[in-house]
Write a structure and sequence with these properties.
The protein has strands at about 10-15, 20-25, 30-35, 45-50, 60, 65-70. It is mainly beta and about 70 residues long. It has a 6-stranded antiparallel β-barrel with strand order 1-2-3-6-5-4. Strand 1 (about 10-15) and strand 2 form a beta hairpin. The radius of gyration is 12 Å and the shape is globular.
Length: about 70
């Protein structure tokens, strides 16, 4: 099993598209589009880590344990 170092960062801003898609903007400039169909969200200023899922999916996980499936844009 291969373990990667854990990447953590702070969410700088939460944006919404015209279609009401949620975009999380990281402090380093990366953007993550929420692909999950739930009403969970991450607030600006929260520290998150990236967790790998099955079939190449990725999740943003907060310190409180909120886990949201996203796609990097």
């Amino acid at each position: 099993m291969l373990f990667r170092s854990q990447i953590t960062f702070v969410i700088k801003d939460v944006l919404y598209t015209a279609r009401r898609d949620t975009i999380f903007a990281a402090e380093d400039g990366r953007l993550f589009k929420k692909t999950a169909d739930n009403n969970l969200t991450i607030k600006a200023g929260e520290r998150v880590s990236i967790e790998d899922g099955m079939f190449g999916s990725i999740f943003l996980v907060t310190e409180k344990g909120v886990r949201i499936k996203v796609k990097e844009r």
